[in-house]
Design a protein that fits this description.
Ubiquitin-like (UB roll); alpha+beta; 5 strands; five-stranded mixed sheet
Length: about 90
């Protein structure tokens, strides 16, 4: 699958796009855990002390927010695209 990171998250990961092979039955939560294990600065942005998403990062799967799918239990496939967005403000 393709994982795209934007703005400050791209800086933490060192690149804007990562390819990750996923097997049948892989969940979005497992992908995020693997991704954050390889990028320690990302871990603190994604996960709270209880192992839940912090809400600091918006996670989309194929353009849809995980919270409107099956959350961290959403199944993913090799042809999916996951996008990670930090909060954005303006004024």
């Amino acid at each position: 699958m393709q994982i795209r990171a934007y703005a400050t998250l791209r800086d933490i990961m060192g690149r804007s796009t990562i390819e990750m092979a996923v097997g049948a039955g892989t969940t979005a939560g497992q992908v995020l855990a693997r991704l954050s294990a390889g990028h320690p600065g990302l871990r603190e942005k994604l996960w709270d002390a209880d192992g839940q998403l912090t809400g600091f990062v918006t996670v989309l799967l194929n353009g849809r927010a995980l919270e409107y799918l099956n959350g961290l239990d959403t199944l993913v496939a090799d042809d999916d695209t996951m996008s990670l967005f930090p909060p954005v403000g303006g004024g």
